[in-house]
Design a protein that fits this description.
The protein has 250 residues and is an alpha/beta fold. It has helices at residues 18-29, 41-51, 68-79, 102-130, 151-171, 189-196, 199-207, 217-228; strands spanning 9-13, 33-38, 55-59, 84-87, 133-138, 176-183, 239-242. It has a single domain (9-187, 216-243), classed as NAD(P)-binding Rossmann-like Domain (Rossmann fold).
Length: 250
């Protein structure tokens, strides 16, 4: 891997399924060696089998913040560089505000926000030495407008968008671009299950999406690849909704 200076190296957290898998798939299709990071070893192995030889997987719990520096150090030592980081891993908890415990709130913040900060901090150290890099954070419509019963998720994703801007201002002078994708309602197994069990919610989603349909995971993959490519070389600090117009729908 160290001998191939032309091929970029990407890290994608939560890359074994859903949007993370779609992003990894797009990267691999464009000759980017992609390291998938996640907690489920079997799911990671299956994803690597599907994606082929330009992938490898690391089973790792990003909630163990104190172990993240070693994770990044080991990746740098083995692969020589890190060109792209996609912070995609996340969890959600759907519950009325007044029923959410401090522990439940903390768990979502830890996975969706604190671990993103810690991983980005360590990867930034590698990218600063390279004088080049691309960081892509994944937000949500929950940070664009109010959605009930996802208070912790909303807080975390709002934090992600704020961090994206602050990181971009600090890192971009040294050649590291930081951007964010805010997916709309995308047709994944998880969203299909949630929306199919809640017809009113599904109708509301579709009625306020001007394009009148759910997006595809590949739509997010395409956006991530664009932001990671040289075509986006003068783009940093943005939050780009990929949502069929949902964020501006009426």
């Amino acid at each position: 891997m160290k001998d191939d200076q032309e091929r970029k190296i990407a890290l994608v957290t939560g890359g074994a399924s859903g949007l993370g898998f779609a992003i990894a798939e797009k990267f691999v299709q464009n000759n980017i060696f992609t390291i998938l990071i996640g907690r489920n070893e079997q799911r990671l192995e299956k994803a690597c089998e599907q994606l082929g030889e330009l992938t490898t997987a690391i089973t790792f719990d990003l909630n163990k913040l104190s172990d993240i520096p070693k994770l990044v150090s080991d990746i740098k030592q083995k692969f020589g560089r890190i060109d792209i980081l996609v912070n995609n891993a996340g969890i959600n908890a759907k519950k009325p505000l007044i029923e959410v415990t401090d522990q439940e709130f903390h768990e979502v913040i830890l996975t969706n926000l604190s671990s993103v900060f810690s991983l980005t901090r360590e990867v930034s150290k590698v990218m600063l030495k390279q004088k080049k890099g691309c960081i892509i954070n994944i937000s949500s419509m929950a940070a664009q407008y109010g959605i009930p019963k996802v208070i912790a998720y909303t807080a975390a994703k709002s934090g992600i968008e704020g961090m994206t801007k602050a990181m971009a201002v600090e890192l971009s002078p040294d050649g590291i671009r930081v951007n964010c994708i805010a997916p709309g309602f995308i047709a994944t197994d998880m969203s299909a299950k949630a929306l199919n069990n809640d017809p009113d919610r599904k109708n509301k989603v579709l009625s306020r999406t001007p394009m009148g349909k759910l997006g595809l995971p590949s739509d997010i993959g395409d956006a991530a690849y664009f932001l990671a490519s040289d075509d986006a070389k003068f783009i940093t600090g943005i939050v780009i909704p990929v949502d069929g117009g949902n964020s501006i729908g009426f």
